[in-house]
């Protein structure tokens, strides 16, 4: 066997690990070992001292182009009026496609948006000697919900425990502690609150053999059927009715053909087992997440969607998309970083009381992208658009 190569750790500065000297030392370290220049990575306008809690071993930035689409006309309960939407992406045609959809929906009178539910979970599991103790514990949980709620909420000023779902299997009881989390996305908030709740539970119930704070039943960073049905984050619906004349004039397509393509797409999605019978909601959601400092890994859950369409007798086309697990924040996490905050402020979505507005703008943007891509496919312009806009020619 070969002797293992000695591990060389990434340099740290114990006195000022977020200073420019520490970042420069790490770039030099990476360059020395790879031979790659990091001039662009090391060029940035933000203050590294603001990054504590957002990143470790900071050495520079990844510059993602941001395009501007709009105006997006939203008829929401939180977002009302016109918005210009920043989309961070390296995919050609994406901004143009969403912009085209925004034009169509603007002329149709805008997108109506509604937040139907708001839950963030932590999902502890409890193990007992037998199923009967697990069943009895479920009854005990209901009886002591008030005390458990009080214990959880000692850790947070904004998180509120709404309910505890229960799912039994063998001698285990799986639970989902559902919270509202204010303007934060809430994964860390719910973890801390549920830990306090579990400590109270263990101190007051001696039938539990063991418990795990997270049982994978919240399905964090993973799409799941339970969250599509029960909601994780915001459950948002965006809907609009578009006259056929607009499809013909703006999109060079037709509502009857759009509806027929929708039926074919529904069957294709059913056959393939997708978690989304729409076209590409992940495109708009990811671009907005990167621009506004969201946890991009939550696209795994947030891009799940249910699309529903109707062809009206007069030729109008009703189209809606339900996003059941949209996980967003207008405060905390990466939202306060320099460019991310600017992008949120561009839409008046930064800070307290703004998360509902942001969720509605994202859902409305997604709807515009669905109709734009669907029309391009029906009009057989999809490939041509990518050929025209999606190549990085020297």
UniProtKB/TrEMBL annotation:
PROSITE patterns on file: HMG_COA_REDUCTASE_4
Q: What class of enzyme is it?
A: oxidoreductase
User: In the Enzyme Commission scheme, what number(s) does this protein have?
Assistant: 1.1.1.34
Q: Which Pfam families match?
A: HMG-CoA_red
Q: Cite the InterPro entries for this sequence.
A: HMG_CoA_Rdtase (IPR002202), HMG_CoA_Rdtase_cat_sf (IPR023074), HMG_CoA_Rdtase_eu_arc (IPR004554), HMG_CoA_Rdtase_NAD(P)-bd_sf (IPR009023), HMG_CoA_Rdtase_sub-bd_dom_sf (IPR009029)
**Assigned keywords, A-Z:** NADP, Oxidoreductase
Q: Does the keyword Transmembrane apply?
A: no
Record SUPFAM superfamilies: NAD-binding domain of HMG-CoA reductase (SSF55035), Substrate-binding domain of HMG-CoA reductase (SSF56542)
Q: Belongs to which family?
A: Belongs to the HMG-CoA reductase family.
Q: What is this protein called?
A: hydroxymethylglutaryl-CoA reductase (NADPH)
Q: Which organism is it from?
A: Paraconexibacter antarcticus
């Amino acid at each position: 066997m070969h002797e293992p190569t000695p591990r060389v750790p990434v340099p740290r500065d114990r006195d000022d690990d977020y200073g420019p000297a520490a970042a420069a030392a790490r770039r030099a370290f990476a360059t020395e070992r790879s031979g790659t220049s990091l001039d662009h990575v090391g060029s940035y306008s933000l203050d590294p001292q603001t990054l504590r809690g957002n990143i470790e071993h900071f050495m520079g930035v990844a510059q993602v182009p941001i395009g501007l689409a709009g105006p997006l006309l939203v008829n929401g309960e939180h977002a009302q009026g016109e918005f210009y939407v920043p989309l961070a992406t390296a995919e050609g045609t994406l901004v143009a496609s969403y912009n085209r959809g925004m034009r169509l929906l603007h002329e149709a009178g805008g997108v109506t948006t509604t937040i139907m539910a708001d839950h963030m979970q932590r999902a502890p599991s409890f193990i007992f000697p037998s199923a009967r103790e697990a069943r009895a514990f479920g009854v005990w949980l209901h009886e002591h919900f008030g005390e458990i709620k009080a214990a959880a909420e000692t850790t947070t000023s904004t998180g509120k425990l709404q309910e505890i779902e229960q799912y039994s299997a063998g001698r285990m009881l799986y639970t989902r502690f559902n919270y509202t989390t204010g303007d934060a996305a809430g994964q860390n908030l719910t973890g801390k609150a549920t830990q306090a709740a579990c400590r109270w539970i263990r101190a007051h119930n001696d039938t539990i053999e063991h418990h795990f704070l997270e049982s994978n039943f919240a399905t964090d960073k993973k799409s799941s059927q339970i969250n599509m049905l029960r909601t994780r984050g915001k459950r948002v619906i965006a809907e609009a009715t578009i006259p056929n004349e607009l499809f013909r004039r703006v999109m060079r397509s037709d509502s009857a053909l759009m509806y027929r393509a929708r039926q074919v797409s529904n069957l294709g999605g059913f056959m393939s087992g997708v978690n989304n019978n729409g076209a590409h909601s992940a495109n708009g959601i990811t671009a907005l997440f990167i621009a506004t400092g969201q946890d991009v890994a939550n696209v795994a859950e947030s891009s799940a969607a249910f699309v529903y369409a109707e062809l009206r007798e007069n030729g109008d086309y009703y189209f809606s998309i339900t996003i059941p697990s949209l996980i967003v924040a207008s405060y905390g996490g990466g939202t306060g970083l320099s460019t991310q905050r600017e992008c949120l402020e561009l839409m008046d979505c930064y800070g307290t009381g703004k998360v509902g507005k942001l969720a509605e703008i994202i859902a409305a943007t997604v709807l515009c992208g669905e109709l734009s891509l669907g029309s391009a496919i029906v009009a057989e312009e999809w490939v041509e658009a990518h050929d025209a806009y999606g190549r990085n020619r020297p």
